[in-house]
Amino acid sequence: MKKSLLFSGLLATTLLTLNSCSKDDDPAPGPGATKNIKFTFSTTGVSIAEGDAVHFNLAGSNGSLNSTLWKVNGVTRSNEQGFIIAEEELAAGGTFVVESVTPLYSASISVSAQNFGATNYNLRFKAEVNGTVQNDNNENITTSGGYIKSFTY
Collapsing DSSP states into helix, strand and coil, what is residue 22? Predict the structure, then answer.
């Protein structure tokens, strides 16, 4: 009887020990969830002749050595993790749609505008993460006025 109880006790202890040392079901923590990013920019009334200054600075990281991260109006920007859309491009008018070509761990944007001219101008920018609008800004840049803002997603 003692041997049977001893054997049962050893068997139970062994099973509990093996069960507690089982393979971890939780995945290893990663650097964070990736996300698809989309920025939309437009300006009206920007004048190079009046000295207006507008910059949209973008940067992103996908956690790899691949540095082709963005496309602008459907055209891929090869080998660029970050870039600037400046007043020279924006003064021509139109809308710029910047999208990540691969899911990113993080993306940041800095928007700066300075009005040195005699006429107000408007800038609009929208940020979407995984299809959800995060920011939708419509700013009137007055004469002798300025604007600067940074966002990280």
Answer: coil
87 within 8 A of 46, measured Cβ to Cβ:
yes
Q: CA-CA distance, 98 to 40, in Å (whole number)?
A: 6
Q: What is the pLDDT of residue 31?
A: 55
DSSP state of 34: -
The reported pTM is 0.74
Q: How far, CA to CA in Å, does 11 sit from each of 14, 17, 18?
A: 5, 10, 11
* Other residues' Cβ atoms within 10 Å of the Cβ of residue 98: 24
